[in-house]
Design a protein that fits this description.
The complex is a heterodimer. Chain A is mainly alpha-helical. Helix content of chain A is about 75%, strand content about 0%. Chain A is built from 25 helices and no strands. In chain B, the strands form 9 sheets. In chain B, strands 1, 2, 3, 6, 12 and 13 form a 6-stranded mixed sheet that branches. In chain B, a hairpin with a 2-residue loop joins strand 18 and strand 19 (about 325). Classes of the chains: A mainly alpha, B alpha+beta. The interface of A and B includes residues 14, 72 and 145 of A.
């Protein structure tokens, strides 16, 4: 052989590269078709050793591997993304994503098919690899459709970088606007906790003030947002406890249940004896205070004492009080309403309608009839729907508790209340419609029912008793 | 008023134009009116020439003046290597892709960025100007040829280029089909000379041009015959996959040999600035082309005289850069064949026989002995080693017929343009039952499903496909197409195009989205989703962006002094 084939091929590669580079959008990322084919084949088959060999042997840069990966992403099916991530990590972490920005734009614009898992992987490394300003550009742009994972990743990285670069206030404002625009982020419970970890001194205090403000006035009134700020708030321990206590002392604070939840959590988790005893004494004092509304007391009963019992340090020291308080709850739960006044108070105080109905259904005979008549006469319009719901629960509970007999008893009492009621109020109309429905549906009988149908629903009376 | 039918072979290295000009519709013998026409351009001495039938596919751009020169003069400048950042070739092999060129002006404002469609449009604009100057009449119909293996994107890019150049009534035709059309009409007399019957024959068309090698196997059946009307039914039995192999590759191999010898004596070109690298490579590759042609001519002359053949030796000598020369090389047949060894030797690597074997393998139950004859065409088919390799492969019983290697494609295209009008009935027409080189798949979740089968495409140009939704409440679905031959070998799949399509409503899991697909006569795929009011094209049609790109081409002055 006169021609050195190896040398010829090497030189041919140089020529190819030079000729093709003139036409490459990203000339620095040139790879020959043959090499691209081989690389694509290895990636497709998950032959990561061969990929590494090619990178080493042919001195292929990580950016070129990622370019090939993106360009052929449509035919790549990742079997196990964890293995893929592990194997490709050194390559992905070695990439200057600025260099393959155009390619990534195709991924982000969905003009290139990329499996969701692979897209997420590339997305993560990409946004990790670009500057904060560019991340913010993506965040603010309406051109892209980012799914929950991508939106969260973007938020997380911006948030993290902002922590180091900007004032706390601007970070908090960014967070707030993000939560409003993308409620999906509210599941990112850790963000405020992480922020607290990093902040020092004054900033940490400022964050607490922010959390106090947010607790005081939720801009998104749901459990998700509470979970998010609540865990960070609680992490301030005694400070948060005192803030929560002061809010409980305010009359019927609209977010009282969230503060009580926070107090319960703090009380349960505080391990320092003196501090937890102090806290317990404080909440007990508030509980016993005459200023505290019954519904708040009830909520404290429901949440705090159980939590106190769970704290071994506290329970050991205050066993007697805690057990007494818990016993008292048990006692109270067995109690029935005696007057409609008590029922009305619970309604006004926001007690759950189902729970009110449960206790109301414990009333018997004439007391029950009287309370129903009172409810017909003394219910302001704005509570009409609540009472309607409670009536419905009353029927349901009766039926569930004792079957048709109990339902029949309740229906006869209700019929009597309707018959004996002074005026035909709107509440009577509501009760009447529900009663008729149950009477017909469950074929309820009884003297009062006969009288009720004869007086108010003659057609049904005829059908049942005359025809 | 005379009518004008034009065929253009838009080649990788050279383009040609042929026409049929008629005064009357029902010509007695229209083939006598078929001719290639000159393409007006500047010659190598920068003089306007009106007698060259080929337009070298090169151009030289002066962005400050918005001036472009195409053809011989540009090729000469490219080969000289003195303007490496302003002279270009090799456009066709990059059509439909993302390639573009950036040509620097004296300031940033005058820099010019052109994609491959625009570059191709510049060459077509030269052709259009040339036709207009010679005929001063409108073109009744134009046919432009493309490699059979061009995919939907490449075809669409070619159509865009034709429109950008200002042509209106046109369609595309595959290059092997054009050659066949020319052949069955006995355009150059090779049909009569070779005394072959067409009916019932299986023929292999081997078209090797500057940048692409197309192989297809066709079965011919004469349908009916009367005094002036003959139809040939052509069923494409199989075709090779896309093979980017042509004269340019041979030039680059020989150029690499020159360069490796040169580098033995000087510093490596990779140590030189980019501009110098481009200059060197333009020179060695252009010189390689010259020596390849010259040596081939001599070898062909004495191919049957081995002793004389042994004595043919050339000693290339030319300046590479800064007074440094390629010299001291003895180039003879043996060395040439060693340089081209990997292109000529049958192996798994890219070579001139592999597509033949692929095509035969892809045609069901066909043995190479059953090929009736081989039609050899394309610029590179002049190279002795191509014919030799085919003869060796097929043996002496399969005739190899060389069909006008320069103009057969454009002439076949002109015939097709003429046949486009049904009243023009004196030329043989082809009822082409074409097929794709590969199936077209759509990706659905983890699976690839065959959307368009290459076996069915001859008879089926449109169809329905049920896209089964994999996840509920998806706001959009990805519709991405891929070429592939075997659904199980996905690493060989090539992405074509696609996009995410917004769904008009929420779909349940396993609910079906009905998609209607269609392949037009030019091989461009369109997909329409029934639930959507608008048609979704895999490749978008005319857009503002297209018009803006066209304007750039319109503003360029081509071959104006």
């Amino acid at each position: 052989m006169m021609v050195d084939q190896v040398l010829l091929n090497d030189t041919l590669q140089k020529i190819n590269m030079s000729l093709n580079q003139r036409f490459e959008r990203d000339a620095d990322l040139y790879i020959s078709k043959q090499d691209e084919y081989e690389l694509k084949r290895h990636i497709c088959k998950g032959e990561f050793g061969a990929v590494r060999d090619m990178i080493r042997g042919k001195k292929i840069r990580p950016e070129i591997v990622v370019k090939v990966l993106i360009r052929n992403a449509g035919v790549i099916m990742v079997r196990d993304i964890r293995v893929f991530d592990k194997e490709m990590r050194p390559i992905l972490e070695g990439v200057s994503y600025q260099m393959i920005k155009d390619r990534m734009e195709e991924v982000l614009n969905h003009t290139m098919y990329v499996e969701k898992e692979l897209r997420h992987l590339l997305f993560w490394y990409y946004i990790k690899g670009i500057a904060l300003e560019q991340r913010i550009e993506y965040w603010e742009s309406d051109r892209y459709y980012f799914d929950a994972f991508e939106r969260k990743s973007l938020f997380y990285l911006i948030w993290k970088d902002k922590k180091e670069e900007e004032t706390l206030q601007s970070k908090l404002e960014f967070g707030k606007s993000a939560f409003i625009k993308y409620p999906i982020l509210l599941k990112e419970e850790e963000v405020f906790l992480e922020l607290k970890e990093i902040l020092l001194g004054k900033d940490k205090g400022e964050l607490f003030c922010h959390l106090c403000r947010e607790m005081n006035s939720f801009f998104i009134k749901d459990e998700l947002y509470y979970r998010m700020i609540g865990s960070a708030y609680v992490s301030y321990g005694e400070e948060a406890f005192e803030d929560a206590i002061s809010k409980i002392r305010e009359k019927s604070h609209k977010n009282f249940k969230y503060y009580i939840k926070a107090i319960a959590k703090i009380l349960e988790e505080e391990k320092e004896k003196d501090r937890v005893l102090h806290m317990f004494d404080m909440i007990e004092e508030v509980f016993q205070s005459l200023e505290i509304k019954p519904h708040i007391k009830k909520r404290i009963n429901d949440k705090i004492w159980v939590a106190a019992k769970r704290n071994a340090v506290l329970y050991k020291e205050r066993k007697v009080q805690i057990d007494l308080l818990l016993a008292d709850i048990e006692q109270k739960e067995k109690k029935q309403y005696i007057t409609y006044e008590e029922i009305w108070n619970d309604i006004k105080n926001g007690e759950k309608n189902e729970r009110i109905a449960f206790s109301w259904a414990n009333m018997k005979g004439k007391i029950l009839e009287q309370s129903l008549m009172d409810s017909f006469q003394n219910t302001p319009d704005m509570y009409r729907n609540d009472i309607k719901e409670i009536y419905l629960f009353l029927f349901e509970h009766s039926q569930k508790r004792g079957g048709d007999d109990t339902l029949s008893k309740f229906c006869n009492i209700m019929a009597s209340a309707i018959l004996n009621g002074k005026d035909r109020t709107e509440m009577v109309e509501i009760a009447d419609r529900l009663l008729l429905d149950y009477v017909l549906r469950y074929n309820v009988k009884g003297d009062k029912i006969v009288e009720y149908l004869a007086n108010y629903h003659f057609k049904e009376y005829q059908n049942r008793y005359i025809n | 008023m005379a009518e004008l039918y034009v065929g253009v072979d838009l080649g990788t290295t050279n383009s040609t134009v042929s026409v049929i000009q008629t005064e009357e519709r029902r010509l007695r013998n229209p083939i006598e009116h078929l001719r290639s026409i000159p393409i007006i351009q500047y010659d190598k001495d920068f003089k306007i020439t009106r007698d060259r039938d080929t337009l070298p596919s090169y151009f030289y751009c002066k962005p400050d003046e918005k001036q472009v020169y195409t053809g011989e003069w540009a090729k000469n400048l490219y080969a000289a290597g003195n303007l490496p950042m302003h002279t270009f070739t090799g456009i066709k092999t990059r059509m439909g892709g993302e390639s573009f060129i950036q040509i620097q002006g004296t300031s940033k404002e005058t820099d010019l960025i052109l994609d491959m469609t625009q570059c191709s449009a510049i060459l077509l604009k030269t052709i259009k100007q040339s036709i207009e100057e010679q005929f001063k009449q409108k073109i009744d119909h134009l046919v432009v040829t493309v490699p059979a293996a061009f995919n939907s994107d490449e075809r669409q890019a070619t159509k865009d280029a034709i429109e950008m150049a200002g042509f209106t009534d046109f369609h595309l035709l595959d290059e092997p089909a054009a050659t066949l059309l020319y052949f069955i009409n006995n355009g150059d007399g090779s049909l009569l000379k070779s005394h072959v019957e067409l009916s019932g024959k299986k023929i292999l068309i081997y078209d090797i041009g500057g940048g692409t090698l197309d192989v297809c196997i066709a079965k011919l059946e004469e349908e009916e015959e009367n005094e002036e009307y003959v139809n040939i039914k052509v069923s494409i039995e199989s075709r090779s996959k896309r093979e980017e192999l042509g004269g340019n590759d041979f030039d680059q191999y020989l150029g690499a040999y020159f360069l490796s010898e040169f580098e033995n004596r000087t510093k490596k070109i990779s140590e030189r600035p980019i501009e110098e690298q481009n200059k060197i490579i333009a020179r060695v590759v252009s010189q390689a082309e010259k020596y390849k042609i010259a040596l081939n001519d001599k070898i062909k002359e004495y191919l049957d005289r081995p002793r004389r053949l042994e004595r043919i030796v050339m000693t290339p000598e030319f300046e590479v850069i800064h007074g440094q020369f390629v010299q001291g090389i003895n180039l003879d047949k043996k060395v040439l064949e060693e340089v081209y060894a990997s292109l000529l030797t049958d192996s798994n690597r890219q070579n001139i026989i592999r597509p033949v074997k692929e095509s035969i393998a892809a045609a069901k139950n066909l043995k190479k002995e059953e090929i009736s004859f081989v039609i050899l065409t394309g610029g590179m088919s002049n190279f002795y080693a191509v014919e030799t390799a085919l003869k060796e492969y097929f043996g002496k019983d399969v005739p190899i017929i060389i069909v006008d290697t320069t103009t057969s494609v454009s002439k076949g295209a002109a015939i097709d343009a003429y046949n486009y009008f049904e009243n023009n009935i004196s030329l043989k027409k082809m009822d082409l039952q074409d097929r794709l080189a590969e199936d077209i798949f759509i990706r659905i979740g983890k699976r690839f499903e065959c959307l368009i089968s290459r076996d069915e495409i001859a008879t089926k140009k449109k169809g329905k496909f049920s896209y089964v939704i994999q996840e509920e409440n998806l706001p959009s679905v990805p519709i991405f197409l891929f070429y592939g031959q075997d659904g199980n070998v996905r690493e060989d799949f090539t992405p074509i195009a696609g996009k995410r399509v917004a769904l008009p409503r929420k779909y349940e899991v396993l609910e079906e989205v009905i998609m209607n697909w269609e392949i037009d006569a030019d091989g461009v795929i369109t997909i329409r989703i029934e639930d959507l009011d608008e048609t979704i094209c895999v490749k978008q049609g005319v857009s503002q962006e297209f018009l803006a790109r066209k304007q750039v081409v319109d503003e360029l002055r081509v071959n104006e002094s």
